[in-house]
Amino acid sequence: MKNLFFLFLFLLGLTSCEKFLEIKPTNRLVVSTDVKALMGAHIRMFNETDNTLAGTSVPFKNEDLYYFFAFQSDDLNTDRFLENYYTSNFESLYIESLNWENEDMPGNLWSTFFSNIGFYNTIIDKVNEVEATETEKDIVRNEAKFLRAWYLFKLLQWFSPYLQNDLGIPVNLDSEAVGEADMRRRTQTEVYNYILTDLTDIINSETQPRESYNIFFDKLLAHALLAEVYLFKSGSGAGIEKDYAAAIEHAKIVLEGYVLPSPDFYEPFINSDETGVFKNTKQSLLTFVWYDYYYGGMYNIMSSYGIYQFPTDALYSIYKDNDVRKKLFFGAEKNITKFDDVADMFTKQVIFNYFHYAEMYLIIAESYARLGDNGNARIWLEDFQRSRYQNYEGFKGDDLLQEILNERRREFCLEQDVRWCDLIRNPKGWTRKSYQNEEEPEYTIEDNDYRFCLPIPLEEELQNNHIRQNPGWNM
Length: 475
Prior knowledge:
Blueprint: E1 4-10, H1 17-22, E2 27-33, H2 35-47, H3 63-72, H4 91-97, H5 105-126, H6 134-159, H7 188-204, H8 219-234, H9 243-255, E3 276-279, E4 284-291, H10 313-316, H11 324-329, E5 349-356, H12 357-370, H13 374-385, H14 400-412, H15 418-425, E6 430-433, E7 442-445, H16 458-465
Antiparallel strand pairs: 1-2, 3-4, 4-5, 6-7
Helix pairs in contact: 2-6, 5-6, 6-7, 6-8, 7-8, 8-9, 9-12, 12-13, 12-14, 13-14
């Protein structure tokens, strides 16, 4: 692959969507390398603690992301969060998030994910200028396409009002469009089309990934992300009739040849003495293991070494006594033990699963239920539950869909943004205590509340690019 001189434009202190979407800088870094090496350096950031590439990041290493979505959601008992010494370090983020009106984190998420998308745009565009075979280009291009699709999907989930197709997110995929990009909010349909096109390109690629280079160029990962995308899209303002069927199709491809463990052998996370990226474990297609010396992570405050955290009563109540997860996830005092061996102060590791096999089962079951095919929905639900319940006798309840949604909540409780994204799809409100606020001792988020969608960051967007704010937010 020929070495290529080009300007990789980036901003260290990003403050405007114009800069996120167009990579328009105030500081410039001249990179003399080839595109493959540049993308490779970025990929190594997921695998190696000390490797960095200026102007890019791994958003999932931002520990505040996990705290924020735990505070946004209804699985962590926020009334008891500050009962131990360690969590006082996060008191500010906690207080600012309790009423679901944190003004800082939306801007942090927006800028971090969009700035990386700008980097992927540059890689995808510049690889076309390199003298190389299409196979060599594909191993770079498809790596960037997966990450771009994944990050666009997260932004769409968090920042687009779920039922309003006209209020998607702004998107620019052209790294050369500096000062000329269309800054309007695209429709949800348009954004989904960008995401689906990138992932479909990966699946249809004749090139095979190279183990010595690729992590995210992986056709099973593309199918898994497509299953997630179609499920979320199906009930949104952009949803169409075939979405549930597509979710089923892609999830089934991921599960080909996979066998669920029996309850006696269920383990929610891998055991590893090594750090880095792990593929196709017993639990998921993708697992990140990082040292918590460099990355504290949400899970680190939920270990049982005198640093107790607790679930809400609503979460704890949906676990049955014969559910093996009840004993694995919670202690005798109902404290959270799910992450005891995942965020360990002695091994200094934190472990994160993405694209779980369990999720694929539940995507299939939910999609069948929403299509009205309760027969197949029950088959997939019971097949899954057989691997989580001792002496399982089948589902005995009346509300099949609600039981599937409950299984999602049981299985993925307190992991990343899973619960928050489910609440976006099914916005049921709740009440919790405020913190030392005499005027408002309780905060309530109502059913279908506007706060189930994050606000477009004021300084970054509304003032600089005149992007329409999400309904309800008068920031």
